[in-house]
Amino acid sequence: MEANSSSNPGVNISTPSTTQSTTDSAINTNAGNGKGGKASKVWEHYTKLENDTKSHFIDDEWQLHKRILNFCQIDDHKGDTIGKLIESCLLEWGIDRVFTITVDNASSNDLVISYLKKKLNNWGGLVLNGDYLHVRCCAHIINLIVTEGLKEMNNSVSSIRNAVKYVRSSPARLVRFRKCVEHEKLDSKRIVVMDVPTRWNSTYLMLESALVYQKAFERLEDDDGFYRSYFEEKEGGKKRIGPPEHIDWVNASVLNNFLENFYEITKKFSASLSVTSHLYFHEMHSIESNLKGLIVSDDSYFSAMAKKMKEKYDKYWGSLNTLNKLLIVAVVLDPRYKLSFVKFCFEELYDENVVCELIKVIKGLLSSLYDFYTNNNSRCDSGSQNQSVNAVICPSELEKKSDIIDYRLAKVAKLSKWKKKQLEEDGVELKNEVDKYLLDDCENCFDDSFDLLNWWKVNGGKYKVLSNIAKDILSIPISTVASESAFSTGGRILDPFRASLSPKMVESLICGQNWLCSSRIAVEEDTSSVEDMAFYESITSDSRLASDFDVINLD
Question: CA–CA separation, 191 vs 419, rounded Å?
Answer without folding.
Answer: 72
